[in-house]
Amino acid sequence: MGNNSPTAIVSGLRRCKDKLTNDAARHLCKRTLFGAKKEDVDFLTGKRIKKAITLLLNTDEETPPPALNYYNDANYTDPEIAAGQTWITSLKYDGMNNGRRTNSVKAWWTGLMLNQQRTLREKMVLFWHNHFATETRTVNNALFFYNNNILLRQYALGNFKTLVRAVTTDPNMLRYLNGGVNTKQAPDENYGRELQELFTVGKGPGSHYTEDDVKAAAHVLTGYYVDTKTYTGKFGPGRHDQGDKHFSAFYKSHTIYGQKGMDGAKELDEMLDMIFANEEVSKFICRKLYRFFVYHNIDDVTEQNIIIPLAAIFRKHNYEIKPVLKTLFESEHFFDVANRAALIKSPVDFTVGACRELCIQFPPDTDYINQYNLWLTIQQQAANMQQNIGDPPNVSGWPAYYQQPQFDKSWVNSDTLPKRNVFTDRLLNPGFTKQQAKIMVDPGHFASQASDPSNPDTLINECTRMLLMLDLPDKEKENLKSSILLSGLQGKMSDHYWTEAWNNLTAKPEDAANKTNVNKKLVLLCKYLMDLPQYQLC
Asked: Number of folded domains in the chain?
């Protein structure tokens, strides 16, 4: 499955000038969107790769509506924010509303992924959330969580250096890594360490910053705090260490001379200039992007052919993200057959992608309470599979993105694999219900996406393509036809049985017995395909 072969992949960053085949379009959708919806695959099929990537890197999407108060119930009514209105303008938090508003953000964010536009933004928001990991259970403020997501969304495809600057003074991060209590009287090294180890230069073979660099960074960062009246990040000159800060040879023995008053805030920008002058920043981020979008293993050939030239492009464009992603996604390497079906879906990709690929219909905006509740249901299913957005396990993010040698293989184990199968089985039947609302696959609608659903061979071939990145042997597909679509025929084993049943469904949808029969077979077909190991791959 995928590039588990010991043979190195030697394709490089040369631009692939072909038009997208259907297989290539599905690969592109699987990696850059959540799931490969047939309408997205069809939209991209036949387009020049350059044109397709330009569309995916578009940042002109509409600003999403804010998170809402959907959480009033028999036990609690928000005294400040009316039902159906946004609570993000509120500065009043207590033990009753904070947890509910946090769930509101998680549901809202899941809804944005489920309803994503045909761009890379949602995948990049998740990438940056893992990179600049914070935990709601530690920060304990829903507004900080929401604003942090908006920040990541704003810079998702923008300038990385600008993003690092914004994250550094973001209240969510100031609270999470103690930046808000880092003062000249009591310097706190937490953020100064992670800024280097996890966020910029990383732990690569060329990253040789020192403990003294961590200490010096902590002193540069003294003075920032969270204003508890406005819930914003601010700089307090009286809290800032005005002394000089000396860095190691890794940073060319740079000295940041202490500044007084509000000018002390300028030291942060000077330190970021110093850090970003080191080539390790570009290499570290390009490795993370590669592992997230292409494959977890970076051998010597990949380092030389992909990472180093991508890093040079990153630096050349002053740490703009788009040129790096454009080069990677247009490359022969990205579309190399050996790199397809080579990643195991994350729980978020698995749950959200399944809903999108199966055309699950959620309640409309007018039914926002059930809409949010069912969005939250999907989020909680992913959390149950060990990816709880808003609450990664620690500051390093989810181990599947960095922990050698397992990487993404750690998503699937004896606990999570059965939960994945139970989730897709339940989506197919009986569905998920909240109050009077239900989400469930409409099997007839899903099957109708096939070019000729009345032909059992065509239906099985195209359902397989819609759900799996790897095809099935002809013998297995023949068995699916006989054991599922043509089952119960009492000796009439012929294709026309299914053809008649499907045509009758479309001509006489009121025929309940036939509809039940057809839907039952379609559910069994989808269940079989989605329970296969291949469905875990993207």
From this structure: 2
